[in-house]
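ARCHIVE CARD
Drawer: 12
Card no.: 0347
Subject: one protein chain, sequence and derived structure
Cross-reference: see card 0346
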Amino acid sequence: MTAVGTSGSLNAEAFGRVLREHRVRAGRTQQQLADTLRVKRATLSQWETGRHLPSPGKVDHLDTLLGARRALVELAASIRGEVDDEVAAPVAPTPTTLRDVYQALGRAIVDNLVVDGNGSPQGWTRDFRRDLGVTPLSSAYAIKTLALIDAPYVDPHALGTWLHGAQERGGGWTSRGSGPRPEATAVVIDALSHIGGPKPLGPSLDVLESLTSGPARANTFILTSVLEVLARMRPDSAFTRRTVRDLLALRQAEGTLGVWPEKTSGAVGGRPRPSAAHTARAVIALRILRATGAATDADEVDEAVAAGTQWLLSGSHDDVIRENLEPKDEHGRVRDLEIRHFTPALVARALCLVEDPPWPRIQVLLDSLWSFYDAGLGLFVWPNGDVPIWLQYDAVTATRLAAERHAIVPQPRAVPDQQP
């Protein structure tokens, strides 16, 4: 029996394509199917992308649930016969070192650079799998990631010139065509500092200060994005001191500790929940600031960092959460400014900054992080198939910091089939 959608040599990628076709035809989401199978959604995503072949028992269950009439069972059996392997195992080539991962990731980022008819760089789209349009924010994350992995730029001067030209009227940068935003402007300024201009960044920092006002001062993600840049470029400024005070004011009590909540404005249904992603972001930004020697609210900052770190150590904290930065515009319409926080990477990075890092806990977080890695693409991928550029940046910052601080370099690991 020939399975739909396969051609040429049978392999796990062919199985993944057919599995996805049957799932979509059955009207099930990845999460729904994963819940029924009692596996993680990341595991199901790895089956669909061809990184892993499910165990025979799981294939049989999938075939029954999706009404595939033995198509999945026979296809998987053919693949196992071809590779002569009766156990579930990774079938895509798996990099063995961080160097391998970074080289593949760097090539993938450079290959996805958008250029015009003259070959001049025009930046990057915010998702490598979907044509969502180039934005200054996504381009800035690509530049920052390439800088972290020491990958060669296509033309740093041309990229800097393009980014400067992409400013909104009056200054500042946008994320998705929504007008200048503080978090986008902060990330672009940081990227431009990595490639050395080509123009002075002082005026852009002044614009950033004007943008970080109103509702922005009650959003942890925005404040931490801004503070990371200020810690490097204006650690002792009045703007930095105000940002620190605003960030500390967002803490809420969780037991005897102070942590940062999921959101503080526009919340529905009562008290915002404590958030590992937001607490990790705050701990990271405040530690970066303290490393500069800035005296900005030093005692309160140290207490907040210690309490936040202690809370991060108190649980697993590897859930991925969504947040809409600006749920409604001035006319009450919902705006598409949603972000997803890569919690395992953020918490791992925060804990790596501890004086005596808790390596067993960090390794658990890194294992969760690697479950999002697709060796075939050389990129980190969301379970729904999205490949956002900032996901690559978060993964690289966490793994590189772990490698720098740990005697043993953390390496990508094959993620086993999740059994009930």
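Annotation on reverse: Residues 389-405 form the longest helix (17 residues). Residues 12-83 form a domain with the 434 Repressor (Amino-terminal Domain) fold (CATH 1.10.260.40).
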